[in-house]
């Protein structure tokens, strides 16, 4: 496999840094190719602006349309183009970060904001039918993605009745609304809980779980999200009433 490891943590000597190093070493030992986007080490700029598209800042900026024009004409900022090249190369993407205030660190959110431009991450159309290709289809379809997440909370606090909410709900904006939206198949995430209180024994267990998950990246069944154009949604993109009737939780968007 060709794996892009997308990493967002400011400290290399952290739990996250150690897991990253162990995970990459395990992949390479198994014969896989790995490239890394270490956003803090790269001093990644997370802020969208006119310079991303070679656009005159004196003119009104239309982020969607100007990003598409820059992408199609090859005028995107070099750092964005470099990330596109990595994504085109990879067949699997690992997204690793600590959960901060129920979301990604700003630098990682900014990576998606700047890299998933129109025409690449969204705004992709089937020329034959005119359909919008998203939620299971699109430019990144065929690639796999897996989230590796550390949290300070204990694991049961991230359960369906835990005070922090279920993990599937916390990660829904990233896993369903970003990765699946852009067409990527999303594997179940790896949660490393209690990250602020780790013992050497707990680290060994977490690193073992990570290595096990990485060894099955190609065969682990993805989360069975429903595709937009697979017939489960009506013309208004609302789930048909006979599917998951009398439910409104986010898991109605998973088949089975």
From TrEMBL:
Its EC number is 1.-.-.-, 1.6.99.-. InterPro entries: Flavodoxin_fold, Flavoprotein-like_sf, NAD(P)H_dehydrogenase_qn. It holds the Pfam family Flavodoxin_2. The keyword Glycosyltransferase does not apply. It comes from the Bacteria. Keywords: Oxidoreductase. This is NAD(P)H-dependent oxidoreductase.
